[in-house]
Design brief:
14 strands, about 325 residues, 9 helices
Length: about 325
């Protein structure tokens, strides 16, 4: 009789974030995982989530983490309590999949990472666009040298969640959300810019504005400069549903991607100075699937964890820079 591995039993910890339901659905759909229970510090919100997915609501987090029938947790609480909740889960021996940001500060990230390493549990942060096919195609093109020396990247991601409006009001609470459009949606352009140009720029400048009058920014532009003299432009917003866009340029060529057409275009001397379409490969396994693999194999998500930590560093720097903008 063939051996079958029992599923990893997962609980949802927090329905604060809008992606909580997505990860619950992934837990149900993945053949290697099983959804067991839900906890939330807001009982009404937690019960609604539990009812939606047909599982038990547990009112006490410590009681949930003490259960033998829970192997792992997805963390989608407010960002301000990530350190507390993740470290408690790790000390209870539960594997952790968490929404970005990993934590509000690099120091807290280090505490979370150390707790997971000490407990021997798998930690993975949801940084989904790192594993999309267009990202691999772009990094392959950069690595090929066909762009020459890369000196510019621009990544824009925005939606209309603040003006439609469909984003929950809690996303605009500076105490629990930590920040606004840049701290949430802007994480994706941040980690992609770091992938293309480098994790550690030496200058960071930021302009934040709030069209809707909330206490946190609802759109933002961050510019980062590197010792190589490259410049990165990071754009994020909740007030305009524009296409997701990536532009990368160097001394010998350029790349442009938009999800409007799901097309990657390149130009420059390596392509005869005429624009060409570059094939976009299939997406790699997503962050959730990688988490399951790390749990199963007992391995550590070194690259993901390192990038999550550096993402936090740059977001913190951008938030600080936005408070020191000089008036014209």
């Amino acid at each position: 009789m063939p051996h079958t591995t029992p599923p990893i039993r997962v609980a949802v910890v927090g329905f604060w974030h809008v992606h909580a339901g997505d990860y619950a659905r992934q837990t149900i759909d993945h053949p290697g995982t099983e959804l067991i229970a839900v906890w939330d510090d807001d009982p009404a919100r937690g019960r609604e989530g539990a009812e939606r997915f047909g599982v038990e609501f547990v009112a006490d987090l410590d009681a949930l983490l003490a259960r033998d029938d829970v192997d792992a947790v997805t963390i989608t609480t407010s960002t301000d309590v990530h350190r507390d909740v993740i470290t408690r889960a790790a000390r209870a021996g539960k594997h952790v999949f968490t929404e970005k940001l990993l934590a509000p500060t690099v120091q807290e990230c280090d505490e979370v990472i150390a707790a997971c390493d000490a407990a021997g549990v798998a930690l993975v942060v949801s940084l989904p666009r790192l594993y999309h096919g267009y990202t691999r195609a772009i990094t392959d093109e950069i690595a090929s040298g066909r762009l020459g020396t890369v000196n510019h990247a621009r990544v824009r991601l925005s939606h209309d969640g603040a003006v439609a409006p469909w984003l929950p009001e809690r996303f605009f609470d500076p105490e629990t959300a930590i920040g606004g459009a840049l701290t949430d949606l802007g994480c994706h352009p941040v980690y992609l810019t770091q992938l293309f140009l480098g994790a550690r720029p030496d200058t960071v400048q930021a302009v934040y504005r709030s069209v809707t009058g909330h206490a946190v920014e609802d759109h933002a532009v961050v510019t980062v400069g590197y010792p190589s003299q490259a410049i990165g432009v990071i754009e994020a917003g909740f007030v305009a549903g524009t296409p997701f866009t990536i532009e990368v340029a160097g001394t010998a060529g350029w790349l442009s991607y938009t999800d409007q057409e799901a097309r990657l275009t390149a130009g420059g001397s390596a392509h005869g100075d005429r624009p060409v379409t570059i094939e976009v490969p299939e997406d790699a396994p997503d962050a959730f699937a990688q988490w399951v693999e790390h749990i199963t194999t007992g391995s550590r998500a070194d690259d993901n964890v390192a990038r999550a930590r550096e993402l936090t560093r740059l977001v913190v720097a951008a938030n600080e820079a936005s408070r020191t903008t000089v008036s014209a």
